[in-house]
Amino acid sequence: MSNWDFNKLTKWNIQVLILIFTVILTYGHTLDVPFYLDDFSSIRENYIIYNWQGTLAELWSFSALRIVAYISFALNYQIHQFQVFGYHIVNIVIHFLAGLAILGLLRGLVRSPTLNDILSKEAKLWLPLVVALIFVLHPLQIQGVTYIVQRLASLAALFYLAAMACFIQARLSFNKISRFSWGFACILFILLACFTKQNTITLPIALLCIELIFFHTYQVRIRGIQILIGLGVGFIVFWLMLEQYPAIQKILFDNIPLLQTIDNLTRETNNISRTAYLATQMSVLWIYISLFFWSASSHIDYDNKILMVKGFFSSNENYHFMARLMDSEPIFALIGHLLILGLAIYGLRRFALVSFAILFYYLAHLVESSILPIRDVIFEHRTYLPNLGLAIVCGWLLVVQLPRWLTINKTVTVTVVFLIFLGTTTWLRNQMWRNPVELWRHNVEQSPNKQRGWIILGKHLIIKGKNEQKQGLIEQSIATFKESIAALNKAIIETKNPNGTKSISVTTETAINLVVAHKSLGQYSKALQWINNSLAANINLRPFDQAKFLVNKGNIYFELGRKSPSKAGQYYKQAESAYRQALKVYPQNLKARINLAGILEILKRPQEAIKFYQQVLNINPSNSYVKKNLQRLQSKQ
């Protein structure tokens, strides 16, 4: 590479363009990726989002500590309704801006007093870009970008990284106005981060680490980091000790209400003890680290029982865990983490940047991978922010260390090949996300005992079967529906009773999908049996789910009416009754309104049908099917 080319590529604006190009190249084809998992409960079926009137109070009451992210979802809905491309565009832009924040952060860090004299000119020019590219290209970041609702993770990370970048610029500025401006921006990003996701509570500690490691002498940074780690360990030990002595815990909580409040705020579930969760996370962190360096086993929904097999849990159900930190495997995992942290502290003199990267990795995982119990013990989107630490380590190896062992041409070749490998892997995995059936087939291969994986695979096979029906591929659709029933049957848990009989445990979602699959195959009696049994057996069924069963009941009677002209009137009235019941128990159900309008039109009650179609369009103005039907009815009137 000539000197002219080298200088050209190290300019800020050129590096920004490189970032834009790589992000578009690896994520540009994901605009049609559908909603997955929590996308439905948090966005698609969240009436707070589609009924939002523009006041912050509504969103504040729904999720105060994540209000910034939910404002973005609500605004997305105002513009795009439920068309996924708009949500994906925002997520991709956030991912690019996160890479840009890293570029700014590293360009500042390499000029800090600690690094300025020990890094070569070439390292200072290239290290920020390489780290930023590793971060945005890595396949482990996909869940934070392509999985729509995990904008929570990527947006929080953006504000976190931007705050650090602004802090370092404020520290490097000599001009008072410039320092004040960067400082004000840093505070603003801290506030935005804290109201986007709770894991950003560690941001002040990250800023303190930057101050200690990059702007103070070796003695000060050692003492400061030791104090921070000591305080963190003390906090964890305090809460673990409280859990071991419930009597003392009760006395303290009764007399110091603040402790009870902190306890409630620092757990998502009471079904997992803090000790058990910490023991589990010792292994989970190693899984995260291994996935960063080899992501072949990466998938969307991990099986918690994988950890049970390793001896961390003893349980018959996913979320009722019993574990102790001192079990053999957790303690060995913990020792491994402590050794790495010890090396980070030991290397603070010669390898300050690497030490910071390691400390940052564990700090960024602290909220979700320590003693704050969360129902799902492992999810890849939680690594989005911490992955910066490993990206810095990899960037340092490629830009600082590798040139000491190889020629510059070989170093450039290795770096480019590595980045291309990351980008290609991410592109291919994103391609899988575009096909829900392929994605969930891969998931059940990786976690065959995960009940939820089979349920969702069955659901997407039903959607695929319906599309095949519309295309006239009848035999193919029948095979797909049968495959969906087989997948859903694997999600049914069968247990043997003491008296020799067998009982089954079926989730509500499994039952609903079995209803739809049997209905699609024309097996109406089986479908109605699932509906009636589910409504009768589940006394505490959520109104939302009751409405789903009732809508499907109405759909079955509608189809029976179409196929039995002599009894059509009777069946249509039963369908109308089911849809009205659905709206009674859950008024926000859009399908019930649409289908009820269709039945009313058949029953020659067009004015009522128009009213329900208009109600649907008030919520979802982009529904072309409803628009078409409404215009047809109004033209007749």
Describe the structure.
This protein is mainly alpha-helical and 637 residues long. It has helices at residues 3-9, 12-27, 38-44, 47-50, 56-63, 67-80, 84-109, 113-116, 121-137, 142-145, 151-172, 176-194, 203-215, 218-244, 246-255, 257-265, 274-293, 305-309, 328-346, 352-365, 387-405, 408-433, 436-446, 451-470, 474-489, 508-520, 524-537, 543-563, 568-585, 590-602, 606-619, 624-636, and strands spanning 493-496, 502-505. It has a two-stranded antiparallel ribbon with strand order 1-2. Helix 19 (328-346) packs antiparallel against helix 20.
Tell me the strand percentage band: under 5%
Oligomer: single chain
Mean pLDDT: 86
Record field, number of beta strands: 2
Q: Estimate the helix proportion, in percent.
A: over 70%
Please give the largest β-sheet. 2 strands, antiparallel
Straight-line N-to-C gap:
74 Å
Structure keywords:
637 residues, mainly alpha, 32 helices, 73% helix
Secondary-structure map:
Blueprint (H helix, E strand, L loop, with lengths): L2 H7 L2 H16 L10 H7 L2 H4 L5 H8 L3 H14 L3 H26 L3 H4 L4 H17 L4 H4 L5 H22 L3 H19 L8 H13 L2 H27 L1 H10 L1 H9 L8 H20 L11 H5 L18 H19 L5 H14 L21 H19 L2 H26 L2 H11 L4 H20 L3 H16 L3 E4 L5 E4 L2 H13 L3 H14 L5 H21 L4 H18 L4 H13 L3 H14 L4 H13 L1
Antiparallel strand pairs: 1-2
Helix pairs in contact: 2-7, 2-9, 2-22, 6-7, 7-9, 7-11, 9-21, 9-22, 11-12, 11-13, 13-14, 13-20, 15-16, 17-19, 19-20, 20-21, 21-22, 23-24, 24-25, 24-26, 25-26, 26-27, 26-28, 27-28, 28-29, 28-30, 29-30, 30-31, 31-32
